[in-house]
Design goal:
The chain is built from ten helices and two strands. It is mostly helical. Helix 3 runs antiparallel to helix 10 and helix 5 packs antiparallel against helix 10.
């Protein structure tokens, strides 16, 4: 732990306190993830307690959204207001919630595909490509691409007729949307759908989707931690700025 009474610590000590290498600390400061550190009379950087908090915020943010997006986002958050940071965190939580809904829809669709006959699905409940795209939060062009790749199979009376998505096609599209949002490639998704269509080996498909839900929960928890660290960081920076103004 860094002692708040200490006027500053070295790069090496800060790195040890948060579990990073000295080079990582220097790189993150250069990228703006850390507020700029002042230098002591000897020319070396001197880090304050808020730098350790910033590193913890970055680590949690990287767990939530990935290291590259976190490195791009942190300078904006560090240099902004509490209100702006809260709004950005809300947007990230919203994106995770949307992914979670997609995965749960895919799991429900998988259960229907395995446990019920498609003749229970009324024809009037079929969806057009525009309706399904809206329901999934994707472009209609994405559904057409998935169809060309053999991932979804809408009904068409003729090549020129409009697509009609019944129960099975909706299930396929839900699974594809959930897995694509998780970064799965077309070949992997095709193997999952093959299992679903055979209705003989569905354990892998259910496992993948369930693991995706668990990963989203871990990311949500990490985002909560990041929000707490960010709030602490911005409060510390605000207090230091106010203190500097009074000293002046």
């Amino acid at each position: 732990m860094l002692n708040p009474q200490v006027s500053g610590v070295t790069t090496a000590r800060l790195a040890r306190a948060v579990g990073y290498s000295t080079q990582q600390v220097r790189d993150l400061e250069r990228l703006g993830v850390l507020p700029r550190a002042d230098r002591g009379p000897n020319g070396y950087r001197r880090y304050l307690p808020h730098h350790a908090v910033a590193l913890r915020a970055y680590r949690a943010m990287a767990d939530a959204i990935g290291p590259v997006p976190a490195r791009a986002l942190m300078p904006e958050l560090v240099g902004g207001t509490v209100e702006a940071a809260a709004e950005r965190i809300d947007e990230l939580h919203g994106a995770l919630a949307k992914e979670r809904t997609q995965v749960r829809d895919a799991l429900r669709g998988l259960e229907v595909a395995v446990g019920e006959s498609t003749d229970l699905f009324a024809e009037e409940d079929a969806m057009t490509i525009a309706e399904l795209a809206h329901a999934l939060g994707v472009r209609a062009s994405a559904l057409r691409h998935w169809e060309r790749e053999g991932l979804v199979h809408p009904a068409r009376a003729s090549r020129s007729a409009a697509r009609s998505f019944g129960a099975r096609a909706i299930t396929e599209a839900r699974i594809v949307a959930a897995l694509r949002s998780g970064g799965y490639g077309i070949p992997s998704i095709a193997r999952v759908l093959e299992q679903v269509r055979e209705q003989s080996v569905t354990a892998d498909a259910q496992r993948i989707l369930t693991e995706r839900l668990a990963a989203l929960t871990r990311r949500s928890v990490a985002l909560l931690a990041a929000a707490g660290h960010l709030h602490e960081l911005l409060e510390m920076l605000s207090a230091e700025t106010a203190g500097a103004g009074e000293d002046g």
